[in-house]
């Protein structure tokens, strides 16, 4: 946004910094009515605002009611400041107008054009105004939406004057928003109380569909407004740390406002089954339940050790690849509405057992395997001739991995794996398909990979995943190719948050790609995921900034998954930048959609386009159910999956309830014996987990 705003400055103005003609004017007056127009010089006007006597003082910036007709209009501040545009054009003089009433800082090419459309504008509510020693008499305005203005005044006194007025304006509008938020919250509480006070029977009840929708949407709207207010308040608190950027664990924020009675009931576990239009579907609230529907089947003895998985037993996967449901059915909507009306923004969904009808017919462990659907790109990383080429190949693979991991655009929730659950599979990749993507010749678009019947002409890529922890819910997966001397070890902790009309899932943890032939390790993180529009046709988007780094070579990459703005903008956008840190050189940039077309630009001027929808997909090979162990994902969830395919939600719910009951029995048994869980395939090392027998 900064580049876009600065790019509008393309012409006009001087490149030199000149004295700012700051002056206060009546917010609704013409230039002839300004203080300067009345014979008061710019410097005198500024001094008058900064001092006492009969002139306007800085205290007048704070709004105060007038004696008669409403709130008094506050003076605006305007004048010339130098604004940093870009590296080519540097600093340029621009005419700035601070509209205190609107809380907006606007700028124009010059004073004569101030009645035209401004070249740019910043909202100051929640903005940070700080001093900078980057250039003489410099100040920086950080808007709450992430936009930034770098400005220079004529001297130190004028710089401080602008800073004082800008900060006062930002503070005033922040406090005004807080007061408005308190009023809105009170009105929403009254609405909820009125609905909940309705009788349980009769022509209009508390469970009326329209009233539930009104109750849910009002709660979600209040929550979203509260989140915005919280973000603005945080920006004010971090005024002394303008460079602060939220980390991965801070991506999903909550508003810590007063909690409603119904929310406390939900979090304390005192609210039982929620009524539904279809009587047999309930959202059980379990005070000691597992993460979502996390369950525990009676598991094999922990000391049995790793199982031997025979590759000759594995067959090409024939499971359905798409989730065909069109969204939430009408008889299920009241269940979701009732739950949403009880939740609070930022609430951890650990104690909420989600209804069966929103589940995807696969485990989260299998979903991680589906992210490996382009193994040829993964193996091609080792074929890179230089460290630069290898890191770029990894970034290309990383950006193309997420598309195939989703079963269509519909947002459904995978089964949360239970402790001790495992998933095994493998891929066979023809050797002639493994080459650096940057130099690979263009092949015809095909969504299926060419098969080969000769194992000696293929690389074997093996995958194993395991749920190693219950609280917190930690999944681990390991993937290796012995012929290419490549392996990936990853541990992920998922944390779900309610966000109004959407649900956010933070992916906490990291993975390590090891290229043993080159002695290189690439450490990477994962983005957050969001399920949007959960009342209609839910859809998934990714968000957040992730990193990829190799300590040995000094190369690193930053990948940003952009969430869709509230107004306008594209969905599923992603940008990436690969840098050689010792020389501070950017060697590759990428932009596009993670589920569509990606364009890569290299430092030698070459470009390349990858369409993720036409990349060949290598189906995983997996053993049939009759040869799987009782704790392997598809065998464990087979009955739930079968009934979901048949559309029998009640039967699927009952099967899931049986698993949950077995979980509670086994968990109590371990607690009584004080026996910690011992995973089969992964060992804890510090805060991470590693495969027991890596390459």
TrEMBL record:
Species of the source: Equus caballus (Horse)
GO molecular function: lipid binding
Oligomeric and partner information: Interacts with OSBPL9. Interacts with DIAPH1.
Domain PH: 74-171
Bias (Low complexity): 15-47, 55-65
Name of this protein: Oxysterol-binding protein
UniProt GO cellular component terms: cytoskeleton
Principal subcellular localization: cytoplasm
Biased amino acid composition, Acidic residues: 310-325
Entry's localization field: Cytoplasm, Cytoskeleton
């Amino acid at each position: 946004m900064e580049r876009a705003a600065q790019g509008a400055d393309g012409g006009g103005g001087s490149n030199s910094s000149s004295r700012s003609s700051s002056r206060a004017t009546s917010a609704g007056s013409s230039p002839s009515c300004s203080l300067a127009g009345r014979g008061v010089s710019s410097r005198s006007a500024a001094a008058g605002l900064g001092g006492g006597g009969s002139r306007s003082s800085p205290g007048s910036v704070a709004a105060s009611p007038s004696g008669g007709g409403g709130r008094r209009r506050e003076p605006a501040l305007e004048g010339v400041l130098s604004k940093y545009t870009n590296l080519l054009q540097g600093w340029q003089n621009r005419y700035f107008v601070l509209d205190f009433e609107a809380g907006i800082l606007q700028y124009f090419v010059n004073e004569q054009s101030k009645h035209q459309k401004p070249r740019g504008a910043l909202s100051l509510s929640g903005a940070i105004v700080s001093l900078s020693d980057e250039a003489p008499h410099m100040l920086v305005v950080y808007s709450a939406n992430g936009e930034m203005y770098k400005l220079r005044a004529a001297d130190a006194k004028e710089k401080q004057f602008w800073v004082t007025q800008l900060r006062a304006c930002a503070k005033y509008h922040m406090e005004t928003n807080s007061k408005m938020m308190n009023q809105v919250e009170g009105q929403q509480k009254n609405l909820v109380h009125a609905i909940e006070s309705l009788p349980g029977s009769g022509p209009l009840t508390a469970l009326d569909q329209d009233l539930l929708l009104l109750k849910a949407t009002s709660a979600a709207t209040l929550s979203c407004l509260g989140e915005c207010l919280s973000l603005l308040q945080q920006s004010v608190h971090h005024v002394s740390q303008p460079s602060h950027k939220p980390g991965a664990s801070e991506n999903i924020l909550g508003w810590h406002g007063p909690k409603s009675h119904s929310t406390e009931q939900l979090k304390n576990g005192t609210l039982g089954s929620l009524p539904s239009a279809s009587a047999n579907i309930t959202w059980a609230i379990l005070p000691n339940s597992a993460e979502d529907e996390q369950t525990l089947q009676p598991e094999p003895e922990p000391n049995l050790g790793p199982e031997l998985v025979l590759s000759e037993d594995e067959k090409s996967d024939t499971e359905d690849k798409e989730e065909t449901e069109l969204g939430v059915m009408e008889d299920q909507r009241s269940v979701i509405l009732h739950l949403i009306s009880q939740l609070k923004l930022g609430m951890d969904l650990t104690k909420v057992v989600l209804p069966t009808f929103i589940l995807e017919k696969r485990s989260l462990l299998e979903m991680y395997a589906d992210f490996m659907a382009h193994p040829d790109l993964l193996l091609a990383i080792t074929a890179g001739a230089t460290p630069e080429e290898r890191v770029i190949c990894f970034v290309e693979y990383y950006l193309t991995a997420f598309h195939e991991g989703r079963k269509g655009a519909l947002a459904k929730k995978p089964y949360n794996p239970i402790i001790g659950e495992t998933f095994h599979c493998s891929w066979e990749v023809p050797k002639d398909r493994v080459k650096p993507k940057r130099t690979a010749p263009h092949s015809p678009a095909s969504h299926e990979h060419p098969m080969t019947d000769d194992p000696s002409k293929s690389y074997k890529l093996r995958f194993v995943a395991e749920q190693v922890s219950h609280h917190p819910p930690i999944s681990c997966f390991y993937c290796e190719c012995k012929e290419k001397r490549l392996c990936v070890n990853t541990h992920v902790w998922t944390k779900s948050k309610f966000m109004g009309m959407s649900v956010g899932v933070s992916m906490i943890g990291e993975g390590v790609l090891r290229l043993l032939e080159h002695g290189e390790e690439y450490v990477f993180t994962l983005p957050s995921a969001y399920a949007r529009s959960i009342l209609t046709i839910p859809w998934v988007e990714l968000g957040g900034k992730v990193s990829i780094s190799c300590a040995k070579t000094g190369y690193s990459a930053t990948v940003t998954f952009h969430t869709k703005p509230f107004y306008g903008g594209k969905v599923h956008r992603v940008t990436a930048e690969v840098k050689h840190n010792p020389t501070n050189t950017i060697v590759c940039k990428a932009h596009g959609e993670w589920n569509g077309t990606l364009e890569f630009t290299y430092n030698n001027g070459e470009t390349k386009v990858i369409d993720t929808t036409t990349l060949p997909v290598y189906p995983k090979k997996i053993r049939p159910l009759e040869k799987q162990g009782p704790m392997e994902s598809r065998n464990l969830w087979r009955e739930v999956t079968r009934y979901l395919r048949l559309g029998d939600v009640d039967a699927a719910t009952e099967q899931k309830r049986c698993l949950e009951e077995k979980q509670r029995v086994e968990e109590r048994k371990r607690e009584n014996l004080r026996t910690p869980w011992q995973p089969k395939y992964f060992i804890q090392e510090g805060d991470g987990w590693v495969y027991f027998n890596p390459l």
